[in-house]
């Protein structure tokens, strides 16, 4: 193989290695179905974008699997990239362990993140931490990889570092096997407009 061929193959090899890397929290068996109703979310995540649903008629931020707008009743939904910034609205430190599914043996945080777009997502952190971040703490959304599927996760790094490229022009989901619950899997469980009451993780 020539040096040029090796150089061309290395980005693909690196991407494959990243997809196969083990997630810090859950086993690959808990990977969500990337081609289901949330396909736009996962397709966007694979490209390093946080893609979420809006009402096409009035622009209201919608829940992940919402079928009709609460504001105007329209059923035309548009998914589009949003700014990957938000803050901690609520947090739970989970002590539940599922040997063989949940990798960690220490407590881990599940965060309710209020995004700048008006959505709310339930997720865990980008990297392992045994403490609960303060309510109101700013976060940047990065992406974990569970069984090769990119899922949103909160970066607590003040610099907003994450493992995916920055977007251009923009700033629980059941898995293939039963999970203890979407929060334990660390996958996005729902999106909520900021006007809705708090949802416990």
What is this structure, in a nutshell?
The chain has a domain at 23-37 and 83-185. It has 3 helices and 7 strands, in the order H-H-E-E-E-E-E-E-E-H. The chain has helices spanning 3-20, 39-46, 182-185, and strands at 50-55, 77-82, 85-94, 108-115, 120-123, 138-146, 149-155.
In whole angstroms, the N-to-C terminal distance is: 51 Å
SS element count, helices: 3
Pattern of helices and strands: HHEEEEEEEH
Anisotropy-based shape? globular
Q: What is the mean predicted local confidence, pLDDT?
A: 78
Cα Rg: 17 Å
Beta fraction: 15-25%
**What structural class is derived from the secondary structure elements?**
alpha+beta
> In which order are the strands of the major sheet placed?
5-4-3-6-7
Give the assembly state of these chains.
Answer: single chain
Say how many strands there are: 7
The low-confidence parts are 160-201
Question: Helix proportion of residues, in percent?
Answer: 10-25%
The main pleated sheet reads as:
5 strands, antiparallel
Can you tell me about this structure?
This protein has 201 residues and is of the alpha+beta class. It has a domain at 23-37 and 83-185. It is built from three helices and seven strands, in the order H-H-E-E-E-E-E-E-E-H. Strand 6 (138-146) and strand 7 form a beta hairpin. The protein is globular. Mean pLDDT is 78; it is low at 160-201.
Task: Describe how the helices and strands are arranged.
Elements: H1 3-20, H2 39-46, E1 50-55, E2 77-82, E3 85-94, E4 108-115, E5 120-123, E6 138-146, E7 149-155, H3 182-185
Antiparallel strand pairs: 1-2, 3-4, 3-6, 4-5, 6-7
């Amino acid at each position: 193989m020539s040096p040029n061929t090796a150089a061309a193959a290395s980005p693909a090899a690196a991407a494959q290695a990243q997809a196969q890397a083990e997630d810090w929290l859950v086993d690959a068996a808990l990977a969500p179905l990337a081609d289901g109703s949330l396909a736009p979310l996962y397709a966007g995540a694979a490209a390093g974008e946080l893609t979420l649903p809006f009402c096409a008629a009035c622009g209201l931020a919608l829940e992940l699997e919402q079928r009709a707008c609460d504001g105007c009743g329209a059923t035309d939904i548009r998914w589009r990239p949003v700014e990957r910034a938000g803050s901690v609205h609520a947090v739970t430190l989970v002590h539940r362990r599922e040997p063989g599914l949940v990798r960690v043996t220490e407590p881990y945080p599940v965060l309710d993140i209020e995004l700048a777009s008006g959505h709310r997502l339930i997720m865990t952190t980008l990297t392992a931490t045994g403490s609960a971040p303060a309510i109101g703490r700013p976060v940047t959304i990065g992406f974990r990889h569970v069984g090769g599927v990119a899922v949103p996760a909160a970066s607590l790094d003040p610099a907003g570092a994450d493992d995916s490229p920055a977007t251009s022009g923009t700033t629980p989901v059941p898995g293939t096997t039963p999970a203890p619950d979407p929060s334990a899997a660390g996958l996005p469980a729902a999106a909520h407009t900021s006007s809705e009451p708090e949802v416990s993780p």
